[in-house]
Amino acid sequence: MIRPATPDDVPEIVSMIRELAEYEKAAHEVRVTEEGLRATLFGDGPAAFAHIAEHDGEVAGFTLWFLTFSTWRGVHGIYMEDLYVRPQHRGGGYGRALMAELAGICAERGYQRLEWAVLDWNEPSIGFYDKLGGLRQDEWLTYRLTDEPLRRLAPREG
């Protein structure tokens, strides 16, 4: 049911990233390409990892994640960038199974954190994460630099 992604899964993962972005009302922000994602997941020293949920040979969902490091705990953790289950497969346990896979990786490797973010209006996902025992980190604010603000901050040559 759950397996590590392979290079052949990249087109499906990109498709699901676009589906997720549409759901999150941010399709206009998607810039991922199959080539770029393939290099990220399967190039020399991969920067991220993905797992696939399958139902009768059909891709039902995926999770994409990468390693973090906690200076306070002194060990790695996992940051789950995306968890997506296609609408026709929701309620079938695939989201939980994908989360359980990441929790298992944490346990096997001695990682002490599994973290993620969820949009504050996404009540179905919030309810799902609450049922799993996820703890909201309300005291932390998430910041992001992209596009022009990121370019302005970057040091200039010369």
Automatic annotation (TrEMBL):
One of its GO terms (molecular function) is N-acetyltransferase activity. The keyword Acyltransferase applies. Coiled coil: none annotated. Residues 1-155 form the N-acetyltransferase domain. Keywords: Acyltransferase, Transferase. Belongs to the acetyltransferase family. This is GNAT family N-acetyltransferase. It comes from Nonomuraea zeae.
